[in-house]
Amino acid sequence: MLPTPKQEPDVQCSWWEKGAASVASPFGANGVELGKNFTSNGVRGNYHVFAEGIDFSRPVRVVVRLHGDGAREYDVADGLTACLADQANRHNAINVVPKSPDTVGSVTWWEDIPRNREWLGALLQQEIYPRFGLSAQDSVWMGYSGGAEMITYGILPRNSEWIGQSATMVGGGGAPHEVAVQPSAAQRENLELAWVVGLNDDGRDGTFNALGNARAGAEFYRSIGFARVQEAYPAGYDHVSVPQIKILDQRLSGEAISLG
Questions:
Q1: Entry's InterPro entries (predicted)?
Q2: Which residues are CB-neighbours of 130 under 8 A, at least 6 positions away?
């Protein structure tokens, strides 16, 4: 008998409604801006920014979080997305949550990678980093399911320099056919790559085999010289129940992923 899947806490994190931000910041009310528009080369998309209590007198990081297929996390901003943002802000990290500019069928990152990648790169390099005096070197990436696939198929093979400190692939992150632009020696040595997938997330229900994809992705990037590859495949979790809030906390704290 299979173990009962553990569940991500079903909580609401509408914390921006509870009062003013504790530290003055150049953001909207309580450091939150939802549904902002950004257009690059005729491609229009949207994004959220969460920055409650960010102290710009201290080192600031940027968490770039890519949603899964369908973009439900983006659309329901006071659920998991806001809980993740709260965790990022506690680590003095701005949380940027872009929505793929995909306009055909279900919203995904991976169905038109070149178009979506160009828009995402422009958003970060032309809007986010200049606005807040940051750079790609300050970035920590996290992708879930299709968002994890975007990182391993779309970003790392061609623009690994966009990821400054680490990338965490949750519920996916397969191996590309090739790397179009080779990462530098420094990136291979220093960039932290982590895959986190529940052992039950193996396609047993006839859908996406995230476990197989993640194992292949981790092995591929290890084989081309990335020295800091971490894998975590905890028992009792499936595609929707992996505790992403805890994972982000551990990644931002510099801890090894432990979900026992």
A1: AB_hydrolase_fold
A2: none
